[in-house]
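Re: the request from the purification team.
They wanted to know what the chain is likely to look like in 3D before they choose a buffer screen. I agreed to run a prediction and write the result into the notebook, where they can find it.
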Amino acid sequence: MLVGANPITSFEDGTTEAMITSNLYEDIVRADLSSCRWRFSVKQAVLNRLVDAPTGRWDAAYQLPSDLLIVNAVTIADKAVDYDIYGDNVYVDAGEDETLVIDYTYRADEADWPPHFVLLVEYHVASVLAASLARDAGLADLMNSQYSVQNLRARNIDAQQQTTRRLTVNRFLEGTGRRSTRGSRRTR
């Protein structure tokens, strides 16, 4: 409706709008979910170590979850570890008794999307429909612009869904030889 097209009742309702949307919708959603570490679409999992070790460079291989879109972090004992993704496995250097945990983005169900992400996907779909259905470059540019603005808004809102992280500067000050001058006067 954002581009003046007829509303669709389902992806299979036989209209041109439904055909275009059904062919592109899942790709758009997966791309938007993968573009940011959206708090509503992130979870953790303990991975199962595979019996066969990798051929080279890494000690162990683990099976990735089937609903994974993007790996955000791989940890052992709450410490980030180096890793590589090969197909549907993650390779790491880990002992047999160590537990591997990943944080990852998955394909969240539409019912779990917050309003700011729903609007983001709507503008993304509208930008595609404006170009492919309406064949209106000006309208496509407008929808792309609206999508970009909503992307920034959505990321800003989503970033507030966790504890604010403080930047520790002590080690930087110590490394440069500078000390706090609080409570003392410096003269030149």
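For the purification team: The longest helix spans residues 137-159.
Please add any questions underneath this entry.
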